[in-house]
Amino acid sequence: MAHLLGAERLHLEFPTRTVFDEVTLGLDEGDRIGIVGRNGDGKSTLLKLLAGRLEPDAGRVTVRRGVRIGMLDQTDTVDPDATVAEAVVGGIDEHVWAGDPKVRDVIAGLLGDVPWDGRVGDLSGGQRRRVGLAALLVGDWDVLFLDEPTNHLDVEGIAWLARHLRERWSRSDGALVVVTHDRWFLDEVCTGTWEVHDGIVEPFEGGYAAYVLQRVERDRMAAASEAKRQNLMRKELAWLRRGAPARTSKPKFRIDAANQLIEDVPPVRDRVELSRLAVARLGKDVVDLLDAGVDYPAPGGGTRTVLRDVEWRIAPGERTGILGVNGAGKSTLLGLVTGAVSPTHGRVKRGTTVRIATLSQELAELAEWADERVSAVVAAQRTSYTIGSGSKAVELTPGQLLERLGFTNQQLATPVRDLSGGQKRRLQLLLILLTEPNVLILDEPTNDLDTDMLAAIEDLLDSWPGTLLVVSHDRYLLERVTDQQFAIVDAKLRHLPGGVDQYLELRAAQQRGGGAGSGAASGAARVAASGTDASPGPAAASAALALSGAERRTAEKELASVERRIEKLQQQIAAARDGFAELDQSDYERLNAEMAKVTAAEQEVAELEERWFELTEQLG
């Protein structure tokens, strides 16, 4: 494979720290690289160095003659006075660019809800970001550098972008380097991973999943090496302590040997740990939406139905993900659950013990604490906190609690306004959990979090015993922390036994059957959800009509039985997972036996969901 560009011994310092030291990298044709690492470790800086946007203090970046480089950074670089058409295709006549299938695909995939002749400055921030991405992708590039390209894209948009980047070049042509926290996207697109940490860039083969496996193996080997080193150090220390107390000199070669044992020890990484916090008792009744609907006044008069005929009984310990296009009604649905929105039709019933907390996108919980130190914010809630229960209960000070969530001593004295986006998100989540809610709603919780922090938050949510509702475009997160998914389609809440894949198939079918949209490219754009027809197709309708009365009753009875069995199994699985914390972690046989039971139950649920889907298709 031909070499495209390379970086040799890059060194870069900021006033307070060294970002990179002696970094050497190469990019060849066919490379698809994902960059991961903690926030602030230099992922975006590395992209700018490789793209020539930033000069290193030492070292150099070399680019093969004639290589065309395109870059999407996190700043808004689109001219606000230009129209969308001018920003994306410039002054090219419509009959010219409309004849290019790549251009049509980009416009349809990214700008379906954007007015083609509208002014860029009048668009929302997310729309401007998508215009900038579209303007980049319609060009011809040998190398693409993308910094957080999935921001402001919904699940469909992310799936489209992954497909576009996979098909943009042949397997041995072009090169891609992308920074994103979307782990599903990394797995779909990337064949290699660069981890940025501690001033170096460490390469791994494969996408995110392969990177995690290799990193675990690397850490295991490092732990074994550390155990040997510690044993040697103990021997050296014992030798150095031998002899009379007044003796101060030792053979120099022994001192040198002891120093060599510790000279290559890397600094300790941030470790994020937060064991189970107290949760208010939750009864059998949580929140029931009974034939609920919401209408809003329409701009031209009359009303617009956002939700209708919603029947949702939220169970204790339920873990549900909510999908839907922007504007479909996800926030309205959450408003019904929290009480912020009153139903126009039907009713909402809440249990008397329910305590709901929402992790919002706006970080509103931190506004009043902007000038306070981080430690003072937590100390203002209580002077001490209890983690765990029973014999495992541990009492922590506010500072100790923050340290468990990855805050360093230096950061504890930092004003909230000076924290990074990821640090603010961590503090926001901690403050919410300290109110001891038993129903937690996460509204796009992945904003500003790196992949390590996302994994830590997911680990925390695994042990959180309350009811969890998640709205997110991060497919990996949804599939990781929730047990089931629902989608809002045509103002109705629909269960998705097939998960995100079923949702994408449903949306694709809508677009095929719903006609042209009203956004960019005069009909090339995706169809908005509110303008589609979700009635059953001819095959489903004929299947339903083909059932006799007795067959229909039998199918309905089996469907009800399957739903009850699925619900029972999911409760058993949730109870078994909660029980893992109480088991003796050294009793491997017991742990394996319990895990085998959970795996068997999950397999049965998957089979039942397939049957449920078949029955619903038969019944129309």
Task: Give an overview in words.
This protein is of the alpha/beta class and about 625 residues long. It folds into 3 domains: about 5-210, Rossmann fold (3-Layer(aba) Sandwich); about 285-495, Rossmann fold, CATH 3.40.50.300; about 535-620. The chain is built from 20 helices and 20 strands. It has helices spanning about 45-50, 85-90, 95, 100-110, 125-135, 155-170, 185-190, 210-240, 250-260, 330-340, 375-380, 400-405, 410, 420-435, 450-460, 475-480, 500-515, 540-545, 550-580, 590-620, and strands spanning about 5-15, 15-30, 30-35, 60-65, 70, 145, 175-180, 190-195, 200-205, 285-295, 305-315, 320-325, 345-350, 355-360, 385, 395, 440-445, 465-470, 485-490, 490-495. The strands form 5 sheets. The chain has a 6-stranded mixed beta sheet with strand order 5-6-7-3-8-9, sandwiched between helices. It has a 6-stranded mixed beta sheet with strand order 14-17-18-12-19-20, with helices on both faces. Helix 19 (about 550-580) runs antiparallel to helix 20. The longest helix is centred in the middle third of the chain and has 34 residues, at about 210-240. The protein is globular. Residues about 245-250, about 265-270 and about 520-545 have low confidence and may be disordered.
